[in-house]
Structures are given as C-alpha cells and as structure tokens.
UniProtKB/TrEMBL annotation:
Ranges for domain N-acetyltransferase: 16-176
Name used for this protein in its record: GNAT family N-acetyltransferase
Enzyme class: transferase
Statement: the UniProt record of this protein carries the keyword Acyltransferase: yes
Lineage: Bacteria, Pseudomonadati, Bacteroidota, Flavobacteriia, Flavobacteriales
Gene3D superfamilies in UniProt: 3.40.630.30
Keywords associated with the record: Acyltransferase, Transferase
The species this protein was found in: Flavobacterium sp. WC2409
EC number: 2.3.-.-
Length: 201
C-alpha cells in the first residue's frame, strides 16, 4: 500500500491515539514548549517557546506536503491529555524504507509505557500496512535516554556516523549520530511478539 499524504491517518489502541499533526495543534502542545524547554536539548529543531513550537509544527506539516515526512500528535487516553509528537521521515516508498523519529513526550508521560504503545502502532503500520522492509532510527550519540528507549523496543545498533551534523547550539558544535534499525523479518519474528507481551501487561 502507498501512503496517501493528503489523507488523515489515525492509529490507536486502548491506551493511545496518534493522528496526523496539524498547525492547529499548537494549542495542544504549547504547554510543553513553555514549561519544559529542556525536552529538545538534543534536537536540531528546537520547539521551546511559542515561536519555536509553531515553526516546529509548520516544518513538520510542510514535510508532509512535500511527501517526505508524516508527523503525528500523540494523545494519551489514560490521562485524557496530549502527550507529544513523533513522525515518519525520509520516506522512500520505492525503496520501502523510512525513518522513525522526532519523538518527544512531556515529562509526565516518560517512563509510563506510552512510548512502547506508540512504537508498536507505528511499526505495525510501517511494516504491515505500508509494506516497509526497513525502519531506521537515529539519535545524538550523547542522548542516552533516547538510545536506551530505542534499544528497549528491539532496535539493533548499526554504527556511528562521526561528526555527522551540527547541533542546535550552532555549526561550531557538531554531533555523532547513532544509527539503529528494525528489518521486516525482525518485526514479525522478534520485535512484534516481544512488544505485544509488554504492552498487554
């Protein structure tokens, strides 16, 4: 199945709902931008403060219009609150590959199991609906919390891109990027069964 970038996509289970991110979602995410600015410490595109958050959302929506990104907003059903955002990006439908990232959650939603719920729905959609062969993940190699979260869902480390890109601090300070991935056969044989057990408990 090809991805219709103009269509609204909703992924949900009993715990979480992910839907297509829109510019009007600024009001749903503004609280994090104002009160939790360190959320984007390792992000190249900052979303701290109202102007930065608006720019962050606009860039994500533009990426969808350009058909190379598909951003989501995350709604936590347990609390009845919006919790953060994530997206598919570097989408290559011909090669059947994409990256999954730009993921962040408000402080109260970290360590609650919400990330595993989201990742299950996103990976299931990528492999079983879109027919992807590979889903890639990247992070600043200093972002230990993010790396641990990716490995905990079953991502396999592939290596480090040294001095890969600038950081939000500026072009003078560059970062090493860690590359991880999940392949189609790994999803069905390992990752999906393991995640299912953990999110159902």
């Amino acid at each position: 199945m090809s991805l219709n970038f103009s269509q609204q996509v909703i992924l949900e289970n009993n715990h979480v709902l992910l839907r297509s991110l829109q510019e009007s979602d600024l009001e749903n995410l503004l609280e994090f931008a104002i009160n939790e600015p360190t959320t984007w410490e390792y992000s190249l595109i900052r979303a701290d403060g109202k102007e930065n958050m608006l720019n962050y959302i606009q860039l994500a929506v533009k990426g969808r219009e350009n058909k190379n990104q598909f951003p989501f907003i995350v709604f936590d059903k347990k609390s009845g609150k919006y919790a953060g955002s994530t997206r598919f990006y570097d989408i290559n439908l011909d090669f059947k590959t994409l990256q999954l990232g730009y993921t962040w959650y408000g402080e109260q939603f970290r360590g609650t199991g919400l990330n595993k719920q989201c990742k299950f729905l996103l990976l299931q959609f990528a492999f079983e609906t879109l027919g992807m062969e590979r889903v890639e993940f990247r992070a600043d190699n200093n972002n230990k919390r993010s790396i641990a979260a990716m490995k905990s869902i079953g991502c396999k480390e592939e290596g480090i891109l040294r001095n890969h890109m600038p950081t939000a601090v500026g072009s003078e300070k560059r970062r090493d990027s860690i590359i991880l991935s999940i392949l189609r056969n790994e999803w069905f044989e390992e990752v999906k069964p393991s995640l299912l057990k953990r999110i159902e408990n």
